[in-house]
Specification:
The protein has helices spanning 3-11, 19-31, 36-42, 48-52, 79-113, 125-134, 144-160, 174-183, 190-200, 209-239, 268-278, 281-289, 302-311, 322-327, 345-349, 378-392; strands at residues 55-56, 64-65, 245-249, 259-264, 295-300, 315-317, 331-336, 355-358, 369-370, 406-410. The protein is α/β, with parallel strands linked by helices.
Length: 412
Amino acid sequence: MAEKDRDAKKECAFNSPDQASKEMVGIAREKGVETVWDRYQAMQPGCTYGAQGVCCRNCSMGPCRITKKTKAGVCGATADVIAARNFARMVAGGAAAHSDHGRAVAETFVKAAKGEAPGYAIKDEKKLYQTAERLGVKTEGRDAKDVAIEVGETALAEFGKQEGELHFIKRAPEPRQAIWRALDVVPRGIDREIVEIMHRTTMGVDMEYRNIMMQATRASLADGWGGSMIGTELQDIMFQTPVPVKSKVNLGVLKEDEVNVVIHGHEPLLSEMIVAVSRDREILDYAKSKGAKGINIAGICCTANEILVRHGVPIAGNFLQQELAILTGAVEAMVVDVQCVMQSLPQVASGFHTKVINTAAKAKMPGAMQIIFHEDKAIESAKAILKAAIENYPNRGKVHIPKLSSDLIAGF
């Protein structure tokens, strides 16, 4: 292949209307830094069997794949069953990840209500009592603290529940509830539905693709109306229900004269505390002692939305911009926890001064600095993370921040 053709093929891997991203992809290519688009291009052409969902690794007799020659796997599973099993397992993984976020919030919520998690508190009592009613928790004549403890414990019980229905299902329109009940897809318990997918999709169990897809539906509802909604409701109570707020988005929100800390992942338990501690006089003075004018917190991906809607913290970028933020040379620390974090970040950061700080014990990242975040010591953990970022500020090299950002209004 001619050099010109190779360049054209490489260019087609990156396709975005965003000028800031285009600018930073150009920087990446100048510096020879591999990004998500380069890895995507290297994978082409992709596996057509995988794209159709017709390859199976669910037992040790395989791997099997369906072709014109082989109409079924070694166990006899057809293309429809293999595709349904693969899809259902993807649903199980996604539901487990999102719901585990809700579990972490519920656990911290109970500790906060009991006064065992300094830094966290019940900030929205109105939402507390609304949520209590939805969970069937009695409130009349009771102290807010006692109500909060029972709300948190009731929410936690939704994960291991074996019978009945999830409480928050009742928040759906009644006609929709009726459809779910008619189809027998109303979740019983969050963890139960995820485990049942793994059981049904094991070799030799559920062999009817429609039945498998119904269980995938039940597990997805367990996440949306269970784990994810628990996380949302309890976060509002602890961190305050969002109201409309103005802010900015894109890589241009990074600042040349401040310590830039980018928070990336899914856990608002961490990001809320980092935002709070970043305004502490001791921390601000420490940043100034290192030559910075202040501390600039920005978000990437899902946790970005959490600190945006409650504090107006700007968004540095989306999932595909996480590597590009490091390429600016202006990020002192990229703080990551769980979900949507690319394993490539430490490799990209190796050519810059950026510290990738891994904070989740359940999501270790090779090559990253480890500062494990503990909710019962949240303030101390957040201070340690910010101090590591501040101490890195004098190590900056050349900075290239795109002069591009857009106004936004969020918090609805």
